[in-house]
Automatic annotation (TrEMBL):
Its main location: membrane. This is histidine kinase. Pfam families: HATPase_c (PF02518). Residues 126-333 form the Histidine kinase domain. PANTHER family: HISTIDINE KINASE, PHOSPHATE REGULON SENSOR PROTEIN PHOR. It is a multi-pass membrane protein. SUPFAM superfamilies: ATPase domain of HSP90 chaperone/DNA topoisomerase II/histidine kinase (SSF55874), Homodimeric domain of signal transducing histidine kinase (SSF47384). Keywords: Cell membrane, Kinase, Membrane, Phosphoprotein, Transferase, Transmembrane, Transmembrane helix, Two-component regulatory system. It comes from Bariatricus massiliensis. It is found in: Cell membrane. The keyword Transferase applies. Gene3D superfamilies: Histidine kinase-like ATPase, C-terminal domain (3.30.565.10). The chain crosses the membrane at residues 12-29, 35-54.
Length: 341
């Protein structure tokens, strides 16, 4: 806070002082007070006023400067009062008390909302796990009664299970901390496991997988990366074209301490204006509107999980030629050490 700003704020007090100062001087002249005495009296009056003004400015400036510094340096404004000391002027003390009451109210509301959100997430996760039992029982019944109807039902059950799994991972995505374990895993094993999970879908849509240079080991969480690969593969299958034989090419390359796994399809591709938005929550884009059955959540959840795992997800595409989704994974420590030695 600058002194000129403070004086401007106190303009009423300054105007009153000037009026009283002039009136006092006039009164002294009317009672024929010697000029030197009148000057001394007026000088003391003016000095007293300006000293009070300067002292008040110094006290307020220190408090408000600390307040502004605290708002810039604290990430959680709701804890601002913890960094402030009550000043020696009334307005500042009142402000501190109001801040404390307001922060307590805000923190109580936040705690209640967090508790409510956690209870909701716990319910969703419990429901997602419980629904797997009737799905498994339904699969068993269909396996024991094979015909065209049950085969169609099995396909729909696969989709249902995929949506349940997507919901489960979405609910866990915001609180991934403590729910993953980083391990050294062969990259080829990760890819083959994901391919196996999508085998029926790939066979039905006549999509051929191809593998190039996957002999690496990476450091990641197998469960979460498996879900991410499943979503990417499902998108590659979903948006294929009938104009040519559908393929999914899995390839990897190493740069320093990073392994880049690329999954390339030769499908319809993504329009340039949609590339930067495909990872937004609920964004379906032109392809989603054209082909339908798109929730706009798959890549959003994948991107969220990748950021939690420290994995970069990159999407590139060309309309009519296909899409490439790349994952930048950490190299396994054993491979780093062997290359150094």
């Amino acid at each position: 806070m600058r002194f000129i700003e403070y004086v401007a704020d106190k303009w009423v007090s300054v105007v009153i002082f000037v009026i009283v100062f002039i009136c006092g001087g006039g009164l002294l002249m009317l009672i024929e007070t010697p000029f030197a005495v009148a000057c001394v009296v007026e000088g003391f009056y003016a000095a007293g006023f300006f000293l009070i003004l300067i002292q008040d400015y110094a006290a307020r400036r220190g408090f408000y400067d600390r307040l502004l510094e605290a708002t810039e340096g604290v990430e959680e404004i709701s804890y601002l009062s913890e960094f402030l000391e009550e000043p020696n002027f009334l307005e500042g003390r009142l402000l501190c008390r109001i801040l404390k009451k307001d922060e307590k109210y805000m923190n109580d509301r936040l705690a209640a909302n967090e508790q409510e959100l956690q209870e909701y997430k716990d319910y969703v996760e419990t429901w997602a796990h419980e629904i797997k039992t009737p799905i498994a029982v339904s699969r068993l019944i269909m396996e024991n009664n094979r015909d065209d109807t049950t085969r169609s039902l099995a396909e729909e059950m696969d989709k249902l299970e995929g949506f349940v799994e997507q919901m489960l991972y979405y609910s866990k995505g915001s609180s991934l901390n403590g729910d993953y374990r980083m391990r050294v895993i062969p990259l080829k094993d990760l890819v083959m496991k994901a391919i196996k999970g999508q085998a029926k879908y790939m066979i039905a849509e006549k999509v051929t997988p191809r593998f190039e240079n996957l002999d690496y080991e990476v450091l990641t969480d197998s469960r979460w990366i498996h879900f991410i690969l499943n979503q990417i593969i499902a998108n590659g299958i979903k948006y294929h074209t009938d104009e040519r034989k559908a393929e999914l090419v899995f390839s990897a390359s190493r740069t320093g301490k990073t392994i880049t796994l690329s999954i390339a399809d030769n499908g319809i591709g993504i329009p340039p204006e949609d590339i930067e938005r495909v990872r937004r929550k609920g964004f379906t884009g032109e392809n989603g509107r054209k082909y339908g059955k798109s929730t706009g959540m798959g890549l959003y959840i994948c991107d969220t999980l990748c950021r939690k795992l420290g994995t970069e997800l990159i999407v590139s595409s060309k309309v009519g030629e296909g899409t490439v989704v790349s994952l930048r994974l950490a190299v396994a420590p054993e491979e780093i050490n062997s290359n150094i030695s």
